[in-house]
Amino acid sequence: MLLADSAQVADGKLFILGGGWSLIGPDPTPTAVAVKLTIDRHEVGRSHHWYLVLEDADGRPVYVGDTMQAIEVNGEFQIGQPVGVPDGVPVDFPMAINFPPLPIAPGARYQWRLIINGETLPGASVAFSTRPQPDVDA
Length: 138
Known about the structure:
By secondary structure, the protein is mainly β.
């Protein structure tokens, strides 16, 4: 997983702009989470559920807005039989999830956690901090 300013998937590859940061803000800014999964060959053809959630420094989901909605996104993916890849070789699956500016607190620590089929896999989280608001002298 990698944090970026923006990301997209095309032709089975990740295209990343402004990638690799771990400090943003303090003002909300568009962000992206770029993910490259390695799928075992026996998982090809199966449906997989993924869930990406923003958590605070204590591992709790971050809620925003009047309705206190969690910052999260989820979906399904299924890998087809790849052409030209020898049997037994794992299959790459890139994902790019882009977010508009999120109303998160300055001067705080967060992490995106990816859950696939109910499990957080090793390396399936990426942390970042927001800069504190600068002091404004009157």
